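Two folds, back to back.
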Amino acid sequence: MMAFWIGTVLLLIVSCALIVYPLLKPKEVDEATQRDDLNKAFFKDRLAELESEDQAGIVGNKDDLVIDLKQSLLDDIPSNASSSTSNASSMKWLVWPLVLFMAVVSYGVYSLYGAHSKVAHWQQVENNLPLLSQKLMNPNGVELTDQEMDDLTLALRSRLQYNEQDATGWVLLGRIGLANRDIETAIGALNKADKLMPGNNDIQLSLAQALMFSSDPADLQKADGILESLIKQPNVDLRVYSLLAFSAYENGDYGQAIDYWKQLQAKIGKNDERYDMLTRSINTAQRELDAQKLAQPTAVEGTPVKVSISIAPQVTLPKTGVLIVSIHTADGSPMPVAAGRYPINRFPMTVVLDDRNSMIESRKLSSLTDIIVRARIDTDGNVATKEGDWHGESLVIHLGDDAVVSIDQQY
């Protein structure tokens, strides 16, 4: 704060010097010199003219004219040579009023329109950083208000700007970002902390948690990779099982989610208050798993077609809707030979179609040779309407080969 005020004083001094200097410098000396030089030049030019006129016989009293010319030159000299000095002295009285005026105006305008209150708040927040950090880390303390969380974030960012090697500070900033649902800040801060302290399980667990809230498939894949490595450690943090179960559930892998939740139940025991909550989660996943099994064919008939489906980054998944996968003849006929409807889970995903998905009993999927696979995200549940739906199709493939479809176009 002191540096700020010193800087403003120096700027004010420089500004005053640029304005006051011309008042202190007596310009009249230069003006007198310029006047004398002009008179001399005029006198010489006039003498040359008189000389020319005398030689031409135009004038007969050259000496008298020269005397008059010299007399006029003497008459042009100011009678009071000290007047310029007195004028310069009078101008010096304006110096201090002008300096005072500039100081009053500068600081007055800053007090009205400047960010001095924000600067003061910033300085106060920086001083309160240890207290706010202690309050945040105290498990038995009072929760921080939204304003205190914002102040703590501001203080941490300020400190990390000058000390980028503070891994603890980056971890704290990342966890605050998680608490505020500021996923971009959380991922960035925890990534820096992980680089500063590689191999720290606690940091990697927090990073995985932040990555799981991202909508970027690459971040989700990285989160799964971190969790898979953490669960292989000798002393596994219980949160790893919970995060892995959540990831599996979101991916539609309900059986794996149930397995992770049961492992977590075994770790905490029946006397833990979280046991019943995990039981409810297991029951929910079991219902989803049962419904998933009923929706799938019990046996594969004919030659199955395995379709891997991904979406482009610009695709926004609707809150409600279904995924329609259809198989067409190689000529691109709009009428599908086989089709299936699937819930919109996390992409990329893989589905399998066979003769059970054939549209007409007399024309089986297995009767085709070459096919095209199309996938569409239907938003309104009506297959006849396509406006606004995202879709994509595969290349022509031979029946039995795996198909790859990228949903990247919109009707």
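---
second:
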Amino acid sequence: MDTTGHLQQKALPRMAPAPLTLPRRALDVAVSSLLIFLLSPLLVLLALVVRATSEGPALFRQQRMGEGAREFTLYKFRSMRQDAEGPGLTGATDARVTATGRLLRRFSLDELPQLFNVLRGDMTLVGPRPEAVELAHRYPAEYQWVFRHRPGLTGPCQLRSRRDAVLLDGRPDPEGYYLEVMVPRRAAMDAQLLAHISVPTVLVFVARTPWYLLSAAWDEGGGS
């Protein structure tokens, strides 16, 4: 650790990617293409709402760690003020989030542009959560294996994101807590998923995801 108690950032080692099987990639292309087509009116509407309710672009772009520890640009609808600064993690009551952004995050609507990341091959439908590059470089060595795998739009970690956001609220060092407590737990869930992942497994998580999104209407948890 450094003098502030933070885990120091270290360059990730070179690692061979764990490529998707052809059936999984075909499913990614088919499902993401269909959803982009069906949801295109909603995507346009959300982009207009974000632009109309706060200054700045509709889309937020950020470098994330992808398959084989190679960076890619992840797309989301912008949910924070354009001039927002602070930790790389967002709690459920983070003051940087706009009123529109809080609604988008509650129902994970800000994540919809990641369908284009899936179509491009940066991401897959089901896999580990796409990690911010700065945090990825600070992962404990025993959990860096997760960056061999293509990150997913949904998965076991993504389906508890509202609950995890609440855990970060009020902590003096949310990034330290995330790296020391939450990353080991998430890595265990990802390891269980990846050990048995298949097309049927992907379809199960894809089917579970809409229910998780709709449950935000009565869930007291915060953002994602």
